[in-house]
Structure formats: structure tokens, C-alpha cells
Amino acid sequence: MTDTQSSLSSPALTDARALELRADFPILSQQVHGKPLAYLDFGATAQRPQAVLDAELEFLTRHNSAVHRGAHELAALATGDFEEAREVVAEFVGADFDEIAWQAGATDALNTVANGIAAASRGRGGAASAPLRLGAGDEILITEAEHHANLVPWQELALATGATLRYVPVNDRGTWTIDDLRPLVTDRTRVIAFAHVSNVTGLIAPVAEIVELAASVGAITVLDACQSVPHRPVNFHELGVDFAAFSGHKMAGPNGIGVLYGRRERLEQLPPARTGGSMIEIVTMAETTFMAPPTRFEAGTQPVSQAVALAAACRYLSAIGMDAIRDHEEALGARMVAELNAIEGITVIGNDASVPRSGLAAFIVDGVHAHDVSQYLDAASIAVRAGHHCAQPLHRRLGVTASTRASSYLTTTNAEIDALLEAVSGIRSYFGADR
What we know:
CATH topology of the largest domain: Aspartate Aminotransferase, domain 2
Number of helices: 15
CATH architecture of the largest domain: 3-Layer(aba) Sandwich
Helix content: 25-40%
CATH superfamily of the largest domain: Type I PLP-dependent aspartate aminotransferase-like (Major domain)
EC number: 2.8.1.7
GO molecular function: cysteine desulfurase activity; pyridoxal phosphate binding
Protein name: Cysteine desulfurase
Radius of gyration: 22 Å
Pfam families: Aminotran_5 (PF00266)
Cofactor: pyridoxal 5'-phosphate
């Protein structure tokens, strides 16, 4: 945990406090279908508090300008805001200032790593990039539970380099353990990419053990932190991963911005995946040299207002306490799992409530398609997610095409979980699936 995030003495996030915080989010005050909105789709995108909206608007109305380019006052102010935002976000995730690169999103960040390794494997970056090179006989290891954003780039990297893509299979619950992963790590393993927290099962990966295994064979670790950074204390230095990615819109911040974290020495080894303005040193008609990280990975016009807003989101979450947010959500998640599983004809994907998990529950309703479940809940003013959640292989392994996911955050109350449980208990009867 970082100083920015809070200490373990953060006040507990009670239902009363969650209701107070709800007032900070303008969109949550509305009614849907004539009833107060119960927003349980935070795993897809989080809503933004007024403080984040205000921060971006203030920047746009007072300092908006291109950064690192102009010699005028607005450009200087904008550049100061931009780099201060980098410092805030870096501190929030336990990283150094120059280990944070702005990206278009977490998907973009993961592609930056995969495409950079592909470039290194073609010889780009010279001797400095040699530790990242892949070729025939090398292996990339992921899990069957990965989001497509942490699967497809590695498929492409394998195709580009001749490396072999291997995966840790999930069990009948859709989860895996370190004992499943360990035998697949060999002296041929060069990359291990995995989600810190699954967006379907809520499984919390054993990061420390995976990092230790990777280090024992000289493999690179790439962490999809999209479902962890918004919801629990995260310190990348303490975790020891080589690269990590997370997005702004899942942590009460703006769309259009994500973060690539890389240990300094790894960023220095990684060739850029995108090229253009802003990230160059010298350009001639014959060749180009590139800036040092993190600027090397920030080609083009920068997402300045988005960075400012993301920093505001970090400050907002830190004031509440990431440990308090984690504890609140895990309690809600455990309750959803236990009580949904107790409803006849409902099966929650993932481990039972006795195993720590994040504050989400993806479930299957016997005889009713997930999209019908979602529409039924929407009629009760409960917003959830329906589909494969960008995890088709996981759903295919379980023999289903889709599931319904309810996901909580700092504003979620037990009353909203009550409403979800009551509505779900009537679904099968409504659709005649209980006959």
C-alpha cells in the first residue's frame, strides 16, 4: 500500500457511509423506470464523483493547452498539471514517477507491452532490448480465465515470434490455483501474463508466488490490474511484477486513459509500439531516435484533461481508504455468492463464499438467458452486466455462452444487494423456467 492510498486505520466503509458517498456521484441520484437506480455494473465502468468531473472541467476552462511543446503560460500550466497527475497516480500504485506511461486504456497498455516485445524480437532496440526477445521454443503462459485484452495480444505475439502460447486450465468452477500453474512454468517460459483479479470469478491471483516462479526461470510478469487497482490497495513495487496495466474509467476516473506501469529497467528495454510526435529525440529522413521512458510510450497528443481527472480520482479514493473499500466490497461479494447460490436454479461462477474474492458475482440462471436476466433486473432498476464479459474461453469451458454479473463499489449498500437477491429469486418463475 502507498501513502497516497491510506493506512490500515481507515474508518470502515459502512452502509451509512456508502450512502453518504453516493451523494457525491450525480448520476446515481436519478431514477430508472420510476425507481431509484441500483447500479451494480461497476466492473464494466465506474461512475464519477463530482470532484473528478470538476477537476477535468477546471483544467479545460483554465489551463487547457498542449503539453511539453509551447513556451506560453497556458502550456507551462498544462504541463505542470499533467506531470503532477503522473506523480499522484504513481504514488497511488506504489511506483516511481518515471515508471508510469499514459495510454489510451488498459487494452492499449497491454498491447504496448506485447507489441514492444514483438519489435524487440525483430531486433528493434538493439542489444538493450535483447532480454525481451522471443523465438521458436520460447513459451508465453496465461490462464484460461483471462479477459480478451490479456489473451489476444499474446496470441498475436506468439504468431509474430514463433513462440508457443500455453495456458493454465480452469476447473469446473472457472478458477485455478498456483498448483495448476506451477507445473507449466519451465525454463522455456519467457512471459507470464495474468489478471490480478478475475472480472468473472472474482478470484484474487497469488501474485507473489507467480512472481517468484517467474524469477526462478527468468520470465517476465505482466499483470492485468484493471479489477484490482480500483478496488483494493495495490503497490506494484511490493508485488514485484515487471509490467502492469489498469484503466481510468473503472476507478471513478475518465474514459480514454489507461496506465502502463513498468519497472524502470524493463521500460528501458522495451521498444515503442507506437511512433510519432512527442516521443522522439532526433528525426532525420533516414532514422529516428526515441526519448527515454516513459515519454517513449506516449506518442501523439496527450490525454491531459483525462490525466488530471484520473489524479483527482486517486485523491478521492485515497481519502476514503483503499483498505476500507476492499473490505466493504469483499463482504458484499461474499454475501452475494452465498445468497445467490442458495436460490434454487442459480449458480455463481467461481469459488464459494468461504474463499476471499472481490466484490462481484457472475451467475447463471437455469433455463433463462443472461440477457433476459439483465433486462428483467433492469425493469427493477438494477443495472448489471450480461454476456461473456470478454472471457469467451472461460464461459466455453463451463458450457455456457453468457452469464449475468453484479459488481459493487464504494457506494454499494446492502439494501441494493437485498433488491438484487429479491429480484433474482423471481426470475425463473417469471420466465416459466421453474416448471
